[in-house]
Amino acid sequence: MLIEDEPFYMQITIEVMECAGFTTEVVDTVEHVPARLDEGDYDAIVLDIMLDCASDMFTRAETRSGFLTGCRVYERYIEPRLPNVPIVVVSALNPRTPLGEEGLRFFRERNVPIFNKPFDDEKLASKLAALTNA
């Protein structure tokens, strides 16, 4: 599963995942994540940290105005439902800013691999293969 709302990176990540042998299901809106997690059987999830959220699923304070929506999606929906599915995070957050540091620290503390955009396609594919023993 790919949770990404940026069309450019969505297309690149789909290509990387499919070249690595994964069938990729894309969720491009946060609002669809809970239902799609319940419906599918996933080998891995690639999650963007910065996602738009137009609904009232999260408060602006929880997501820091969208900059950390991926953190909230992970802790509220992915971790409780699919604790054994490997997660890889992709991010355009600047680690030298307070928000960037907060978001990246959140995933580092959970031992979730992080790839900064623009990411190296081969390294992402290798990491996904290693995490899923593909």
Description:
The chain has 134 residues and is α/β, with parallel strands linked by helices. It has a single domain, classed as Rossmann fold (3-Layer(aba) Sandwich), CATH 3.40.50. The chain has six helices and five strands. Strands 2-1-3-4-5 form a five-stranded parallel beta sheet, sandwiched between helices. α1 crosses α6 and α2 runs parallel beside α4. The protein is globular and about 40 Å long. The two termini are 15 Å apart. The model has no long low-confidence stretch (mean pLDDT 91).
> Average pLDDT value?
91
Cα Rg = 14 Å
Distance between the termini: 15 Å
Order of helices and strands: EHEHEHHEHEH
CATH architecture: 3-Layer(aba) Sandwich
Strand percentage lies at: 5-15%
For the record, the count of structural domains works out to 1
| CATH top-level class | Alpha Beta
Number of helices: 6
Going by CATH, what is the homologous superfamily?
Response regulator
CATH topology: Rossmann fold
